[in-house]
Design a protein that fits this description.
Layout lengths: L51 E2 L4 E7 L2 E6 L2 E7 L14 H13 L5 E5 L5 H9 L4 E5 L3 H10 L1 H12 L5 E4 L3 H7 L6 E4 L14 H10 L4 E7 L4 H13 L2 E6 L8 E8 L14 E2 L19
Parallel strand pairs: 5-6, 5-8, 6-7, 8-9
Antiparallel strand pairs: 1-2, 2-3, 3-4, 9-11, 10-11, 10-12
Helix pairs in contact: 1-2, 3-4, 6-7
């Protein structure tokens, strides 16, 4: 989970707590996709030493003001308010794009949805869903087990949800450590909705944003699909993914966040066969946008990432 306008200071102090390896929340073996977005974190970017390192991720946990930040490869991966209040009970999602996705989910879904999250990252949205709906279930596909371990030990709300799943006291969260496309190719599960929020550093993995990938996703999801992208306004990634979703769904709505100094923003696309529920408001500086028609990405002619 990342937001290009979520600014952070460069003089913060890194935490130093260790992560204890464990079996995880119903972890299943699979090929080594992490949720993400795009802002350079000046305090750790270019630093030779990682606080936690897996070979796939270089992670730091940073406390800034009243928030805890998970920084991956120099970018903010996720954020939670510090303290013990639960989501919805005095604590909310700090990143504007996650707030919008949550409001979209909250408006569109019933009381007991099953939701697939392709990209685990900080597990903020699965945690918010489960806190809001006692009868909901969430499956999160995350490529890097280290991210899950660090979240378990350092982010209070998502960490609690993961620990409860570990202990078997709450079986509503299922974490699958696998590449997102491998999961889509092989899984036989069915869901009421899905969130595609998978990143490798600053880019969405190309094999997840193709016509074939979204066709697999549509085949296992009965309801809406929500996608977080980082791109220039009306950029090539946004156009290609919008073209795919426009082929597959009757309703496609796009919202864009503020543009960063690097010229990119969160572009959030919601797609459904049925009309989407109206929202009362958007996060500050977010607005609906129109995406130019383009060629849909395919497995053999797709997205190549930011350069």
């Amino acid at each position: 989970e990342r937001d290009p306008m979520f600014s952070v200071r460069s003089d913060v102090t890194l935490t130093t707590s260790a992560v204890t390896k464990g079996q995880g929340a119903k972890f299943r073996p699979g090929s080594p996709i992490a949720a993400g977005a795009f802002i350079l974190f000046a305090g750790v970017a270019g630093t030779a030493t990682c606080q936690y390192e897996s070979g796939m991720s270089c992670l730091h946990v940073v406390r800034q003001g009243g928030e805890i930040l998970l920084v991956s490869d120099g970018t903010v991966q996720a954020a939670e308010p510090a303290g013990t209040a639960r989501f919805g009970e005095g604590a909310e999602l700090p990143l504007p794009y996650t707030r919008h996705l949550w409001e979209r989910l909250d408006a569109d879904l019933g009381p007991a949805p099953s939701v697939l999250f392709v990209g685990g990252g900080g597990y903020s949205l699965p945690t918010r869903l489960l806190a809001s709906r006692p009868d909901a279930t969430a499956t999160a596909v995350e490529i890097d087990p280290l991210i899950t371990e660090v979240v378990r030990e350092t982010l209070p709300r998502a960490g609690e949800a993961i620990r409860q799943a570990d202990a078997g006291t709450d079986d509503r969260l299922d974490i699958v450590h696998a590449d997102g496309r491998v999961y889509l190719n092989e899984a036989e599960d069915r869901f009421d909705a899905a969130v595609m929020d998978a990143f490798s550093s600053g880019s969405v993995p190309a094999h997840l944003v193709t016509r074939e990938s979204f066709a697999l996703l549509k085949g296992m999801v009965d309801g809406p699909v929500y996608v977080n992208l980082i791109d220039r306004p009306d950029g090539p990634l946004a156009r290609g993914v919008h073209a795919i979703l426009s082929e597959l769904y009757g309703t496609v709505e796009t919202v864009q966040g503020p543009v960063s100094d690097r010229g990119r923003s969160n572009i959030l696309i919601a797609a459904s066969d049925l009309p989407l529920a109206p929202l009362e408001a958007l996060p500050e500086d977010y607005r609906p946008v129109t995406i130019t028609p383009a060629r849909a990405f395919t497995d053999d002619r797709g997205w190549v990432g930011h350069r």
